[in-house]
């Protein structure tokens, strides 16, 4: 009887909680890899954004002391020069996004779609990855050396009797900046739209053809409705990419063209017009536009991803 009572007692002793150890190990592994990313986001995104939010509503104090709450800096945003900068930024971003979406989408479909040259797919992806990240001062200098007043292409065309600048072209104006922005917007569109094109299944086209649908009917009833969320999401991301660009526009126009990012730099670092709180109010406007852009992109991308599962 004694042995029979001790047996169940021994069996009732639970083993070491292996599941708990595995859970802690997985948590530590996640923290090891995700922790540095969260620290970088906190230091370079969340904290600066919070500082901009606070500074936009803070008045200048006396003798360096912190001031109180004010809406004066936000009211200054209604001044004509800042409204002009906002309008130019919206037009430049929207125009380059449309150009990038149309040309980049057609280029991607010509290569990635059915019947496209398979040998050109990898080179196009590789070039797009490089060109989409080739921006800032190097891109501006490259265009100056190519299409500037004494650029290589400008001189070659002048040698055959074609003077670009006498026919209205000017690299250092709004139109020239649109051309420069299109250089990195088009390859970025190729990268963004390629997964959606891969999700456009050949079986759908074959089924439409078997049912007697023409190519135009297929694109109107199947192709474009499927691609529409991804196309709109890509266009929104291109818009945000151009709206926040600073270095390219500054290097190409020396800050002469009124754009919102350039105006922020002017009021933050200018010797005469230095006004940090006004710069933070302008930056808050940029953050608001970019927040709306990212929310729209996330929503549209979620809709478009349904066809890629």
Measured between the Cα atoms of the first and last residue, the distance is: 63 Å
Number of helices: 13
Low-confidence stretches: none
Helical content (DSSP H or I, runs of 4+): over 70%
What is the mean predicted local confidence, pLDDT?
84
Number of strands: 0
Largest sheet: none
Order of helices and strands: HHHHHHHHHHHHH
**Rounded radius of gyration (Å):** 28 Å
Morphology call:
globular
Helix/strand structural class: mainly alpha
Strand content: under 5%
Subcellular location: Cell membrane
InterPro entries: MetI-like, MetI-like_sf
Domain ABC transmembrane type-1: 86-296
Membrane topology: Multi-pass membrane protein
Folded structure, characterized:
With 309 residues, the protein is an all-alpha fold. Helices cover 73% and strands 0% of the residues. The protein has 13 helices and no strands. It has helices spanning 2-11, 18-56, 72-76, 80-112, 121-131, 137-147, 152-159, 174-198, 202-210, 215-243, 247-253, 260-269, 276-304. Helix 4 (80-112) crosses helix 8 (174-198), helix 5 (121-131) crosses helix 8 (174-198) and helix 10 (215-243) packs antiparallel against helix 13. The radius of gyration is 28 Å and the shape is globular. The model has no long low-confidence stretch (mean pLDDT 84). One of its GO terms (biological process) is transmembrane transport. The chain crosses the membrane at residues 31-57, 90-112, 124-148, 169-197, 217-240, 247-269, 281-300.
